[in-house]
Every structure is written in C-alpha cells, then in structure tokens.
Design brief:
It is a single chain. The protein is α+β, with helices and mostly antiparallel strands. The protein has one domain. Helices cover 16% and strands 41% of the residues. The protein has a 17-stranded mixed sheet that branches.
Length: 329
Amino acid sequence: MGRAERTDRPGFRALRRWTAGLLCLLYFSPALPSGPALQGERLEYRISYQGALSAMARIDICDAVLETSLEQGPSGEPAYRSTVRISSEGHEQMERLYPFRYRLRSFYSADLQHSILLDKYRKTRKERHEIVWFDWERRVAERYKRRKPKEAPRHVPGAGSGSDGRKDEGMLRILSGLGYDPANFRPSSKTGLRLPGLLLDRLSLLQAARSRDFSPGQEIRLSVSDGKAILNYRVQVLGREPIGHGGRMRDSFKLRFDAFADGRWSGRTAHPGVFVWLTADGSKTPVRFSVDYALGTFVVQMKEGRDIQASVAQGGVTPSLPDQLSSAR
C-alpha cells in the first residue's frame, strides 16, 4: 500500500485533524514562564496521543520547546518575547502520516496588559507565515501574510501616505526589525480586528494566569486573540493534587481552561477544556497538559530528567495583572 493510501484512510485523516487541533490548543495554552523571576526559562515537552485511532496504545507524536526572555519589543519598548516550537521530527509514525513544523513567536507588554506582535509560521504539506501587529495607537490588529513564491510583490509597506502610510511605515520598521524583507509580505485583504481595552495573545495567556496567587475555586477571566477573532477564557483553579515528574511526586495546582466566542463567558465552548498542572511553588512551572477529544486524549508532559528548577533564573519579582483582567472568586 502506497503512502497516499495509508494516510488518506478515514482514521488517519481524523488523527491528522485532531493533531492539528491539538496544536491550535497548544497555541492557546502553552507552558510559558511567568515574570522576571523566570527570564531565560526553557521548557521541553513530549506530546502523546492515546485512543481509538491508536488501538488504545499511547504513541508519542511530537516534541515542543518553549522559551521566554524580557527584552526590547519590535518598537524598542520593554517587552516579553516568548517562542514555542513544535515538531514531529524524530517521530517516525507522524513523519510518515503528517509531518509538521510549527513556530509561534510573541511579543507582549512587560505589564501583561497588551499583546504587541505575533509571528506565526507553519509547515505541513504547505508552508504558511503570517505576522499580526497589534497597533494600540489605532486600536486595530493588522495581519500581514508572506507572499507565495510565484506571487509578485504588489505593495511594499511604507509606500503609502496619510493614516495608512503611518500604519505601513510602522509595519515596515517591525518587519525589518524581525529580520524579514517587507517586500515578501502583503497586508491581509480582510478588515483589521478592532481591539478592546486589554487583550493578550495565545502565548501570554498561561503566563498571565501564572502571575496570580491561586486558591481552590478561584476563577480568572482573560481575553486573547490571534488577530482574527477574540476568545474569552475562563480559568478555574480546581484544587491541588500530587503529580509525578522526574521520579518523584510534586504538589501541583490543577487548572481548567475553557474558551468562549462571541463575547460570551459561558455556554458552548470554542474547543474542549484544557487541563493544566502547575507546580505549587513560586515558579508555578507547567508540568502537564491534557485535553480529551471524542476519539482520544492528548497529553503534553514535561520531559523526564529535566530538573524544573534548573530552567529557572534566580531573582526578580513576578508581575501582577491589572484589575481589569478580573479574577472572580
């Protein structure tokens, strides 16, 4: 049986779809560091699936590396930069079935109030690259997509005048600062997303939650966007429980993340709930994630042999969220 036949069967198509869905959830719930105390943190994870599509066997499907630092943002302002890289490289079954490489880089304000920029790259059968600029002066999120090789440049950011010219000049500086040729990107044909007062992005969501002092039964509400739409996240602190890592049990907080679209904070969720276990210490390091689909469970587990504290730089103070990003108890 040829490769096309193996990977086009309904079961394989479903696994590809759910794997892609999981990666989207990872973008919304990554394991990222929290505050200056964790500058330079690097966390490594293995992602596995277990369910009907694997005959109930647990199979490893990809690895993830997540890093953060406090540095200058694209416009020179103090900002966090967080990067997640997810790859099926080294996992033979997934490389045959659905090889993928994902990278998401995010810049967001040091006070955890505003997203500044998202740099999204994905390579599967196709290659896609998009930059999202959260322009808080104009209160709009603008998207720029990388041109296809056969697509001739029609517009270079910075060539306009008036308000659009100022917008394009700002994007020109940002693209150049990221090391990209602005001529290789084009503005999206869709109207930019209007920004509310406070808005985070996919990579700063969990970091914002980690900056809180947890108590069982606590509820935290955060709004995030990928530049296309806004989702409201309700984060519940379910309680404390031990979790195994590195050959020993660790006390942890168990959280549940639920997302709601269309301005809602309840009702039908935008995707299955994501469970997250954070160490019950000052770092609140994410050790494990889990999400259940109809045909199986995906688990993101910190790799064994990785000393949690070895990833953490000493010193600094974990920032607090502004009151507008409310926490209801």
